Amino acid sequence: MGKLGAQSILFAVIVQILVISAAANIKNLRIWPMPLSVSYGHRTLQLSNDFVLKTEGSKYTDASGILKEGFSRLLDVVKVSHVVDANFSYVGPSPVLKAIQVVVLSPSDELQYGVDESYNLTIPAHGNPAYAHLTAKTVYGALHGLQTFSQVCHFNFTTRTIEVHQVPWTIVDRPRFSYRGLLIDTSRHYLPLPVILKVIDSMAYAKLNVLHWHIVDTQSFPLEIPSYPKLWNGAYSSSERYTVADAAEIVRYARRRGINVLAELDIPGHAQSWGNGYPSLWPSKDCQQPLDISNDFTFKVIDGILSDFSKIFKYRFVHLGGDEVDTSCWTLTPRIRKWLKQNKLNGTTAYEYFVLRAQKIALSHGYEIINWEETFNNFGNKLSPKTIVHNWLGGGVAQQVTAAGLRCIVSNQDKWYLDHIDTTWQDFYSNEPLTNITNPKQQRLVIGGEVCMWGEHIDGSNIETTIWPRAAAAAERLWTAYDNLAKNPSQVTRRLAHFRCLLNQRGVASGPLTGGGRAAPEDPGSCYQQ
Amino acid sequence: MSSNSQFLLKTLFLLFIFPLVNARSIKSTLHKTTELDESLTYLWPLPSQFTFGNDTLTVDPNLSIVFTGNVGGSVIVKEAFERYKKIIFKHGSKSGDFFDVTQLTVIVHSDNDELQLGVDESYSLLVTKSNEHSIIGEVSIEANSIYGALRGLETMSQLCIFDYGVKTVQIHKAPWFIQDKPRFAYRGLLLDTSRHYLPIEIIKQIIESMSYTKLNVLHWHIIDEESFPLEVPSYPNLWKGSYTKWERYTVEDAYEIVDFAKMRGINVMAEVDVPGHAESWGAGYPDLWPSPSCKEPLDVSKNYTFDVIAGILADMRKIFPFEFFHLGGDEVNTTCWTTTPHIKQWLQDHNMTSKDAYEYFVLRAQEIAISHNWTPVNWEETFNTFPSKLNPQTVVHNWLRGGVCQEAVAKGFRCIYSNQGFWYLDHLDVPWDKVYYTEPLEGIKSISEQKLLLGGEACMWGETADASDVQQTIWPRAAAVAERLWSDKEATSSTNTTSAALQRLEYFRCLLTRRGVPAAPVTNFYARRPPLGPGSCYEQ
């Protein structure tokens, strides 16, 4: 905040005058997720018909157009709900908001884990004309600021114009956790490209910042791997596939919205589909999973895939899975049983051997590794210290992982698995990643959390309504400062309902709050009540 | 369609004449990879006449459009072309190579962009490798109207397949010669924005998806007893009946919807359902209720009621240019009329039973619509109750049961088929094949009576459908309706086509999801339910 000295002092004064804390005034706010600090007034500004972006004073040149595009999307979403009267010449009591002045302090547009996502947004009540000010360390913080800005804009049904309500605004905001993820699963069902891009758009509305792409699993292998071109023979059909260009487009599209893509290769236990193209990866024709541990070819293929990955997926982490490994195909297949014996391995130690060898390959490609929690539960002390343990089985794992000095992502299935459709949004909201972790050093090792949209019963027809609004509840848990979070979810019902209706207005098929996931509305009624 | 022997493409067609393919229903699987039965024609709805060959043509991602004929390039066709380019080339394509198809030629014979019932939607589509001998090379669409050209563009887009092996868009089985026209002029989908408000963006997504199935009427059931979302400038308190002040459509929003639909060759038929489904009107004007404790039907005894109707219709006439206007008239429970003293008195004074009053109300509303140069459409109860009194122009909208259109056309009325047992999309337990094999002309023998059956409509009533689930409830079953209404009866009716139709519909449902439309699995027992387990889209 050093660069912001003068502004910060001014800001501190304003805060003292208005004495606003988000918790106290939560009832009148419509922003989701709730910012770190908010003050607001009761006046209204008119958004100019030629509202523009100004960037004087930025060190960031926006050569790639990320900010410009973000601004243009802002205009689209604030105008999407109703036709705005473009010829309306406004003569009323409210001042006109002419521009948003965005100052980005860092010239870099690199999007990496831990990138500074903070922003300060002020919208004055006066001025002729008035200017909104958005300051951020990085362009990605600025994008979050634009999302917040879009949520204080409202259509006026009398003037047919966009107004900014509750000015003056002073918002200081930054995320509580730097990893706020959503998993999608394109192996159980292929998700067409436009569907994935639309999910990414909706993630940005909720300030989620990691798309965990569970690309491949037992059922299908949809991604093109140039090093081993027969792998996508494991796709469901000749058209249920992603080319390298498709994957690059997903990464590019996400990045321009401040979202990283975490690619997953779930080995060795969820990889049967690999063998359609290369049957020697199967222990045998009748016993096709886990990948054949005794065959060096298996690790060559993993190396080839990760080498290809590293050209597409620039996120610091790669997910190597490692969950639910049933080693009976290893112990039942004579060739592998013999190999185990020669190497003095049993099923459990072989599992460890596989995971660690795969970790080394990933490290050699410059990746840090994420593994599902079974790897930690079985041989936590052997894992590379760069490993991030991805919790899923139950609560309490983060506590143990961080006590062991490893980093952790929280996704306990009882609260944050979106395919559990009977889990309510209240459960999602209340799931606290730092439960029972009091030591600040340990707390810092919990890098965030993720909601998981497993695809067994999910395809292009129902993914949005199963994700939303429950993922939004988790998004606030991960973004919003702990003290600003509602202790009782019922305190935020109205605000979440409002966000759900906002998603609908933007064309996202978010389900009602009543019921669990993807429940149809039971009766006629207002979106804001359901 | 009248004879248009000047049609170059049509003349060419006579030179081709390949036999139509027989549907085979074998799904071969290698390993576990789903392979399509290549003997089927994956166009939905099936064109009325088509032939194809064995060539594979590659399509240039920089495909250009050239207009010849009377129309120098209508904006409607140009914008449609740009939309379809985005759909066809969404995976990116190698460029710089040689492509068989680099240009689309569009020939439209009339530049009249008026969109009304019965507008000529026929088109011819030729896809062939260009060579020095061909008169018209590559891809050509010829149509009488720009709306026919839109239908041709849709068909062309369905022929274009991205090949993941060579990473190029291809057209298989060329040369294609397709000559197509709709079986029925009215092919509708009802949306209900009273039970749940549907945001503009969602309505637009639905209109866009309708164009993929060549549906051409959006029946907008705007208002009902639950809410009144539309702005009516003449009676500005009416939209106080909206659920909230945010769940409203301005006049400009309504224009936008009509315009968006027209760009896709789709008419918007507005409905004001009187007198029985109108309780929400009274939120702004309580005088329209018989009494504060008995709020429906609208008060028949007051001229004011009809003034309001006249005001609404006058305002709507400016927005909705379609020649049909739906006046509802269904499910009228007249108890509030006979139990409210001042209305009971009025009935007595006018020597009317409640049934007479129902008739009086409907006919008076019809007169208002007709005075605005609208053709009234009414739900079938009006016809069932007082057929001889209905204005002869009336279009009867069937819903309660089968056989009604048969009776209506026998009496000289035009009819729209929406038998709830099959074509009510909110009936989640009607499987795709029941929807598909429903025949609107069932029992109607004479040609002149058949002509009075304008078409049909799938109805998406909104009690349990909002922005989150409306599209997966509409699709894929509305596509089954769309093929029934567009395609030739002979090609789509015999039950031995069931397996072929199922595979084609499964394919089309995947096409919808590939275009971002949330269309549900075809064979689930209940509509809009999730897929039962992991698997290929093409088998679910």
From TrEMBL, chain A:
The active site is at E324. It is an enzyme of class 3 (hydrolase). One of its GO terms (biological process) is carbohydrate metabolic process. InterPro entries: Beta_hexosaminidase_sua/sub, GH, Glyco_hydro_20_cat, Hex-like_dom2, HEX_eukaryotic_N. Its EC number is 3.2.1.52. One of its GO terms (cellular component) is membrane. Keywords: Glycoprotein, Glycosidase, Hydrolase, Signal. Residues 177-481 form the Glycoside hydrolase family 20 catalytic domain. GO terms for molecular function: beta-N-acetylhexosaminidase activity. It catalyses: Hydrolysis of terminal non-reducing N-acetyl-D-hexosamine residues in N-acetyl-beta-D-hexosaminides. Residues 31-151 form the Beta-hexosaminidase eukaryotic type N-terminal domain. Gene3D superfamilies: Chitobiase/beta-hexosaminidase domain 2-like, Glycosidases. Belongs to the glycosyl hydrolase 20 family. PANTHER family: BETA-HEXOSAMINIDASE (PTHR22600), BETA-HEXOSAMINIDASE A (PTHR22600:SF21). This is Beta-hexosaminidase. The lineage of its organism: Eukaryota, Viridiplantae, Streptophyta, Embryophyta, Tracheophyta. The gene is LOC104231076.
TrEMBL record, chain B:
The active site is at E331 (proton donor). InterPro entries: Beta_hexosaminidase_sua/sub (IPR025705), GH (IPR017853), Glyco_hydro_20_cat (IPR015883), Hex-like_dom2 (IPR029018), HEX_eukaryotic_N (IPR029019). It holds the Pfam family Glycohydro_20b2. GO terms for cellular component: membrane. One of its GO terms (biological process) is carbohydrate metabolic process. The keyword rRNA-binding does not apply. Residues 1-23 form the signal peptide. It catalyses: Hydrolysis of terminal non-reducing N-acetyl-D-hexosamine residues in N-acetyl-beta-D-hexosaminides. GO terms for molecular function: beta-N-acetylhexosaminidase activity. Keywords: Glycoprotein, Glycosidase, Hydrolase, Signal. It is an enzyme of class 3 (hydrolase). Residues 43-159 form the Beta-hexosaminidase eukaryotic type N-terminal domain. Residues 184-488 form the Glycoside hydrolase family 20 catalytic domain. Its EC number is 3.2.1.52. Belongs to the glycosyl hydrolase 20 family. This is Beta-hexosaminidase. The gene is LOC107820274.
